[in-house]
Amino acid sequence: MAYTRKNVTTLTASERRRFVNALLEVKRRGEYDAFVRTHVDYYTSDGEKGLRAAHMCPSFLPWHRRFLLDLENALRRVDSSVTLPYWDWTRDRSITAAPWTADLLGGNGRRSDRQVTTGPFAYGTGHWTLKVNVTDGKALTRDLGRAANPIQLPTRSELQSALDDPVYDASPWDSTATRGFRNKLEGWGTGSGSVSWRNHNRVHRWVGGDMLGGASVNDPVFWLHHAFLDYQWYRWQRAHTSHRYLPANPPGAGDKQQGRIVARLQKLPPWNVTPESLEDVSRIYTYA
Predict the structure, then answer these.
(1) Is the dihedral of CA 127, 132, 133, 137 positive or negative?
(2) pLDDT band at residue 270 under the 50/70/90 scheme
(3) What is the secondary structure of 103-137 as a DSSP string?
(4) Cβ contacts of residue 201 below 8 Å, gap of 6+?
(5) Which residues, at least 6 apart from 175, have a Cβ–Cβ distance to it below 8 Å?
(6) What is the set of domains in the chain, with CATH numbers?
(7) What's the whole-number mean pLDDT along residues 173-180?
(8) For the chain: N or C, fewer Cβ within 10 A?
């Protein structure tokens, strides 16, 4: 029977506590750091050689869908009542309301060094030491809204512009694609600075701190953010029922994307699954 992923603002006090406790237990068991390591390993860009599976490519959405399911399954092995909540950053934009409360993810980082000092994931609690990172920092950091150089969260209309595109993805299947739902949601734009960061990308930059870069999984808000993105793919699929994951077939000889992206029926590393197998999750979960 399918379970339900809820908006984080609708969780009861008990649901909040269970979610946090399950995350802390997965971290205590050493499983959480393996998720951080996997994301770092697959954080590849257009300019790098070899296959791109997680970012700047069509499989951005199915890759993260499976990644979320793996974490959710780990949480549910701790507490079967727990599901991943999502953070709707088009509506819940305050830095003091959920999910930034003391009983959920804690608040902003302190001004001096951006270290998070409130909530269950603060370094001072002794339960959330960063062990896989691009720096030597052991404490979770955030810079919500980037006080020194402010940036705004994406708006409802900016998100809707991605949802309105009926094509899943389009050539050249990378960060420069100007057509397609995938890149409009992932958020690689033209230009420089804030205007080039849209939807998914801009949220990572708005949170700042450890949400910047491949080790962004160190901040638990990563999962709430990507659950909301997965929800948008779920919505897009229902709005455009005649459209599917693209490309359906691998790029041919001479195409610069040959061997660099995952087609619908190809295996999506590091799992033995295909994008097609992840298109329909209705028997696993739904959204409220």
Answers:
(1) positive
(2) very high
(3) TTT--PBPTTT-BB-SSTTSGGGSS----S-SSS-
(4) 186, 187, 188
(5) 45, 46, 56, 183, 186, 188
(6) 3-287 (1.10.1280.10)
(7) 95
(8) N
First to last CA, the chain: 15
Per-residue pLDDT of 187-237, as tens digits, reads 998 766 666 789 999 999 999 999 999 999 999 999 999 999 999 999 999
| Extended strands (E) in 158-250 | none
Q: At a CB cut-off of 8 Å and minimum separation 6, what does 228 contact?
A: 86, 87, 88, 89
Taking a C-beta distance cutoff of 8 angstroms, is the pair 186, 199 a contact? yes
Q: Return the closest-CA partner of residue 265 out of 241, 240, 283, 245.
A: 245
Share in percent of the chain as helix, strand, coil (round to 5): 35, 5, 55
Angle at 110 between CA 109 and CA 115, to 5 degrees: 55
User: By C-alpha distance, which of 156, 222, 107 is closest to 98?
Assistant: 107
Residue 67 neighbours by CB distance under 10 Å: 22
Contact, 87 vs 224, CB < 8 A?
Answer: yes
What does the alpha-carbon distance between residue 185 and residue 165 come to, in Å, rounded to a whole number? 10
